[in-house]
Design a protein that fits this description.
The protein is about 70% helix and about 0% strand. The protein has about 160 residues and is mainly α. It has 2 domains: about 45 residues; about 80 residues, no CATH class. The longest helix has 23 residues. The two termini are about 35 Å apart.
Length: about 160
Amino acid sequence: MGTSKPGRAGWVARATGAGAIGAAFVAIALGALAETGRAAAPAQAVSDAGSGPDAEAMEQPATCGRPGSPPCPLQAWMRANVAGALASRDDAGLARALDRAAKLVPDPAWASWVESAETGASATRKGDVARARASCKACHEAWREAYRAKYRTRPVGP
């Protein structure tokens, strides 16, 4: 199993070499034991997803963003702010949205996310929407899959 899978199942899979289904079963069992108080310490030790609302959101199965499901938080934000500004040819709104998108980077190591959004905002301010679209495309190509895998349900702040 890869190291990017959050939560108990990911830890169990890495620690035991179990497959995804077996690891999920063991993680569920450990969680049930923790709730009864009989295995509180081991169950807490296996959680590697951190804590707080972002970690809780990332442990939930992603039901958003698929056909017939509501959009995921970032997807909804992008549609409303970036795609909406593009569709209405609101260059000032697009620049503001891309400035905000630069601040939505989920991991500081994803520097090209910030660079792409800032490049797009700057290009839009200069009237070069084609270059802004190209910066969006570059960001999506670089980060879409990793974002979906790890942060799909992460809330977008105000």
